[in-house]
Amino acid sequence: MQDGVMREWLETSHLAGGNVAYIEQMFEAYLDDPTAVSDEWRKVFDALPSDGKATDTKMSDVREQFREAAKNKLKQSGGGSSVSDQKQVKVLQLINAYRFRGHQHANLDPLGLWKQDTVPDLSLDFHELSKDDLDREFNVGSLAVGSETMKLKDIHNVLENIYCGSIGAEYMHIVSTEEKRWIQQRLEGNLGKAKFDKEQQKKILRELISADGLEKYLGSKFPGAKRFSLEGGDSLVPLLKALISRSGEQGAKEVVIGMAHRGRLNVLVNVLGKKPQDLFDEFAGKHGESKGSGDVKYHMGFSSDFATPGGDVHLALAFNPSHLEIVNPVVVGSVRARMDRLGDKVGEKVLPITIHGDSAIAGQGVVQETFNMSQTRAYQVGGSVRIVVNNQVGFTTSKREDARSTQYCTDIAKMVQAPIFHVNADDPEAVVFVTQLALDYRNTFKRDVVIDLVCYRRHGHNEADEPSATQPLMYAKVKKHPVARELYAERLNESGAVSEDDAKQWVQDYRDALDKGEVVVEEHRPMRAHSVDWSPYVGNDWDVEYDYKVSAKKLKELAEKISQYPEEHKLNSRVAKVYQERQKMAKGDKALDWGFAESLAYATLVDKDVHIRLTGQDSGRGTFFHRHAVLHNQEDGSTYMPLNHIREGQGQIEIYDSVLSEAAVMAFEYGYATAEPKSLIMWEAQFGDFANGAQVVIDQFLSSGEQKWGRLCGLTLLLPHGYEGQGPEHSSARLERFLQLSADHNWSVCVPTTPAQVFHMIRRQQLRPVRRPLIVMTPKSLLRHPLAISEMDELENTGFQNAIGEIDSLDPKKVKRVVLCSGKVYYDLLKERRDREQDDVAIIRIEQLYPFPAEEVADIMQDYQHVKDFVWCQEEPQNQGAWYSSQHNFWAAIPSGAQLTYRGRDASAAPAVGYLSEHNKQQQKLVDEALTIK
Description:
- By secondary structure, the chain is an alpha/beta fold.
- About 40% of the residues lie in helices and about 15% in strands.
- Helix 28 (about 825-835) crosses helix 31 (about 915-930).
- The protein is globular.
- E1 component of the 2-oxoglutarate dehydrogenase (OGDH) complex which catalyzes the decarboxylation of 2-oxoglutarate, the first step in the conversion of 2-oxoglutarate to succinyl-CoA and CO(2).
């Protein structure tokens, strides 16, 4: 408002004159939080002009207008602001204080051990209100209780019930006024609790009986066995069932759940509907025939269908290792794949649920990474419901000052402005109410939401532990504390909803059901066929035949398509030059380089309706300026992808420059690939060395997921690798680690050396009916190496060569030494041998190190059966690279009686030297030693 408009409004308002101080205080409350004032006042203040400057400037300008108008009006009236008006503002501030900090006085801990600091803001005295004001009527502002005015004592009681009962709501950190108002309406409109009818209460009680009953049963039948029981957090079962049921009612078709081992067996039996007898057999050591190694029972996944008011919902509990929170991005990746398959752009049909421990959510860095991904284009899934089973102790660490540096374990969620609902697990109705609220928030705003289920752990970390040794005071209370179903049964008995006899009978009924060993979940339904079929990929090995042929005509057509872009799309000059060269390659006037052959492989696949997903920190352009699949208009910043403009109805390729993460991003892509066999899923490291940031994903999921859990996955890792003098963190993708993990044909490890090879390798990974990971040591300097080129006819009607023999016209009979190698060092060896005009050393490339291509190498070796001197040459230090891990394969490949020696860098703790001059000396030395016959 301008000065005149402001003055006119103040003078005509019934709050003019002496009440201007009141308006100013209302404005200050509004600036603190727009939801602190009523909708009427908020509209007035929202209408105030903003000149684009900082908020402080706007505050001071508007306040001065208030004060100037007040002085003029006061001179006329000779009066001051009334005490009543000042008190009214204080009441509004009290209301806002409860919204901000009421959770700190909430009754959240079932054991009563939490010692929250006293919050002065929540006292009447702090706001200059007294007992004399308790019976006075005040306007409640935006307090959504259905009445405009209330007595102060009633306002105070209402605030205590809403914000300091069994629910502690943290949401005032959210920037969006709309979201805060929505939460306020839901919390305050229900006075902080929902009203359940008798049938709903009975359902909750029976679910608590199930949760408690299973643990008691297992404890008596298998005493001392590890089960990581849910006891103390029993309300998780009604929470999950309410969440799934309501999600189905609101349109969800699939729910994917990720959780660590605490309570997992209980969730399997009492939520997903696993047969108790199957679980008992696992405890007894019985298991079905399996080719794999298997895993402990509290790591296993499960799938089932669950009846809801909106139809059956498919449930999937993700398999996961003991690396706690690492399953979260796997779940979210699986959800994204399901969304894409269902054509769900915003997360209406698929719901991710992740279940955390209190120590883990605060302590594991992948939690931050996953939160950070939640609203990005490549990884958003419409929000996750995150549940913390907060038993207030992590193994033996319980003191807050040891477990974390924040007040709550859930504070990490504030980084994405997720609302956090703390709730006392011994109040199951509050738990279910919060669950409904959380899901509705997620479905309304498509954002993450957190439920902090504050409970306790009745036993030690596992049932063999003695928790009193480290938590004596906590466990003195735990031993005396009744279980949740007893507390709730007593509550329902007092209200007349359930008789004591009925409650006891239900306990016995559940135990009888466990004795029978059949499914105990009423909502369980036989699982129907899914929209994705894995059967074509089951039981196939690497040598299965596939159609790899592409005609010269089709290659030329596609090459021209991917070399074109709209004339009005102005490219960077260097990128434009890349595309000018590609147009020459498409016409056959120039040999193909790496980037063009790779893009052409993608083109052949999308032309066959294949969906491709490629993510990485620089994947659109390529870290080394080679791919340029996403073209950026230099005039308006718009993007264009030639690969998505080949023909109508083609398969789409998605390429995203990812968040700066390895662990969560790779885990996400793993999750995606385990849920979608028909897509080509690829993750590219900025430098291959950086993949070690995702070592847990590589070790626990990628390398062993099929062995442990029978989970097929076709994820491809592109890891730039090669020694060009760029130092220890930009040389090695740690090839040796992948080879050490290689067994049981769990994946393939390739080091392609030509553009034609990368073309065939990418196509083979998708077209071959095998879904196992592909690990690729991709090049850096070879991307533009004058010898690392291919002709278009090398792409026609052939496939990937696992090994490549000598390419120069050497007389095999003159060969005295055969050098085996892999990767970039081949070109250093080849150039040096040609420069020397040497004809007595043959060079063989191993393009696939695992599974080792014994037959292909044997065919190549036919010409060298007379040779006794064989060398393995590598750039990596002797204790790294392929030498130690694959040496047995090299020995088996050479003729009987021949000798195999090593030529390469000496063993080293670091992957590479940091000085270019030293690198060059080492490189020249290893090449000389490999070629020089003494």
